[in-house]
Amino acid sequence: MFQIIKNEWRFLVRSRIFLGITIAFSAIMLLSIFLGNYQIKKQEQTYQNAKDHVRQQWVSIDEMNPHSAAHYGTYVFKPSNLLSSLDEGVNSVTGNVLRVEGHVQNEIIHSEASQMQAVSRFGKLKPSLLLQYIVPLLLIFLAFNSVSNEKQSGRLKLLVLQGAKPIQLIFAKTLSVWLYGILLLTFIMTAYALFNSQNLSTDIVIRTGLFFSTYSLYYFIICGLTVFFSARWQNATVALTSMLGIWIIWTMFIPNILMSSAEKWHALPSRNEFQSAMTEDRSKGLDGHNPTDKRSIELKEKVLKEYGVDSVSQLPLNFDGMRMQADEDYGNSVWDKHFGNNRAILKQQKQSFQLGGIVNPFISLQNTSMGFMASDNLHHQAFLLQVENYRRVFIKMLNDKQIFGGSKTGNWSWKEDNAFFKSVPDFEYKPTQISEVLSNYMLDILLMILWSILVIILIVYGTKKIKII
Amino acid sequence: MIQIQDVSKSFKGDFAVQNLNLEVKKGEILGLLGANGAGKSTTINMLLGFLNPDSGNVYINKIDTSTNAHDTRKLIGYIPENVNLYPYLTGLENLDYFCKLAGLNYTKDELENYLSTCSLSSDAHHKKVSGYSKGMRQKVGIAIAYAKKAKVYLLDEPASGLDPLASNELSTLLQKLASEGASILMASHDIFRVREVCNRIGILKKGILVKELNSKDVSANELETLYLQFMQN
């Protein structure tokens, strides 16, 4: 088998066309990595500048009422991710700035796609685009006549007479084309590692290792199927047409159809429905800015009873702050209910889409690629959740200062000094653990392994019927 | 040694070979003459173990090809009408590759020696096969079989399209192989070449061996007359 692989590689190395294609393709890949890295580093710089600027504004608050500061709020920026220079995933369409303030959970804004027409129209030239669409095409063109050419030229007879078994031949041809894919993949990963040698962490190494493994599996599936068709069909054109058909169905039709279906099966409420439901539920709760609100009065009576006093002025704390925090707590529970429901629907959509990997390994590849490169919806949702958790801590800290900081109820002119504002922690993004990512994409990984096994079975059993003459 | 005993083979009800009996002894060259569709290639494919006879038996060195094709193929050298080698490899590399597939690791000198023995000029050894003539490729094809130390050579229209010089070189080479003890079966349309090279000649018509004779017993013109008679009747 080694001899056959070696011979196939001699063809690749000596073929000027393939050498030219490989060099041109490698140059495009290098360019895509360089541009991706340049953009990420630029984004990182912008992110850091914006973060520092906003933080500087916050820590420069000289004196301010804490609840006013809660309305003044701050901004959280989604950090750019070095990994996303390999696969951008959903990052260019999800926005990256979130305003954090009291009473309100704002939506993330300023997506790249909303600001750059080219991105919204064509996407960006990322290595993942080349690795998911172009490399498989190259592999198909390399493999479609690998066995049929031997048959048509009569060499297959000679090879079998020399002792090569058809199954050995097909596996060797599959492996040699697959190794070409692995070479391109290795080239990309090496270039990526060299460009980012200063910033490589264990997490990045593990994630890129997994990225490499899933692409390797997908390339094996593509190579195995193409060589199998090349062996089964008498005509190379039929093998090429079959594989191109599969490529189009896998990459264009099934993902779109399945995503649309998953969105219908597990429909998210429309923006209007969602806002109406949130407003309705919110109206059932306590209004922090309305002391005459029925629930505010109930809370007041409860607190007065608790402290054994008759009026809020006798309380050793600021009841306005308490009311604000109660409003906040209720708002949080409404948010948890509705956003929790949305997250559950998104999870169902994701699971339905993942099952598409049974008929289409490309879906599994896309899922894992984005997942391992931290640019999928899972990571985005985790970021949003972290921001919301931060918002709650942030607002509670301000409200607690309003309650227990020494002011009295109704004293809205009371102000806290700069030291307090400096003590409010800044948002720190905690990346999702790789173990969580793995558990989320285990189904995709298993489906790709199953597909690889299926291809091996196809080759083993299917090639028994191959006609040598 | 080749033995074909009462072999019949049909495709979709039409006989390609019918009750064929043939034997090629050690050191013997048998020429099979016949028109297109006479059953020559079917016979060779049964000897190669790529087709199984419907009835009868095919043996190479007393081993049944239909049940032990893997073993019999080790003994066979096959030279088709067009020896299609890998065009991006040199003649020497092609020989080396095919030998290695057969589990034979020869040194460069040994490989060169095989090519030279098969009359491929030494300046061609290191040239890519894409620049070879048909005759040169056939010499590499024979070198592959020769290096494999084949006991049996099966040639399907080997002289077709060769220029007279190359054809003559092929004849000399086959006689050399036979003198070294090989059994050779050569299917051809070329009456004169078969008469010149082979010890015995069989004429196949519609899958039936209609005549078998020693080449010594007949002149080239007589053989042509005889062949035409069989083909026209």
Description:
The complex is a heterodimer of chains A (469) and B (233). Chain A has 469 residues and is an all-alpha fold. Chain A has helices at residues 2-14, 16-59, 66-72, 91-94, 112-115, 117-122, 127-143, 148-153, 155-161, 166-195, 202-232, 236-265, 271-283, 294-307, 319-355, 361-372, 377-404, 418-423, 434-462, and strands spanning 63-64, 74-77, 97-100, 416-417. Chain A has one domain (2-465). Helix content of chain A is 72%, strand content 3%. Chain A has a two-stranded antiparallel ribbon. In chain A, helix 2 packs parallel to helix 10 and helix 3 packs antiparallel against helix 17 (377-404). The two termini of chain A are 22 Å apart. The model of chain A has no long low-confidence stretch (mean pLDDT 86). Chain B is α/β, with parallel strands linked by helices. Chain B has two domains: 1-75 and 152-233, 3-Layer(aba) Sandwich (Rossmann fold), CATH 3.40.50; 83-150. In chain B, 36% of the residues lie in helices and 27% in strands. Chain B has eight helices and ten strands. Chain B has a six-stranded mixed β-sheet, sandwiched between helices. In chain B, helix 3 packs parallel to helix 5 (134-147), helix 4 packs across helix 5 (134-147) and helix 7 (191-197) crosses helix 8 (220-232). The longest helix of chain B has 16 residues, at 164-179. The two termini of chain B are 32 Å apart. The interface between A and B is medium-sized, with 20 and 27 residues.
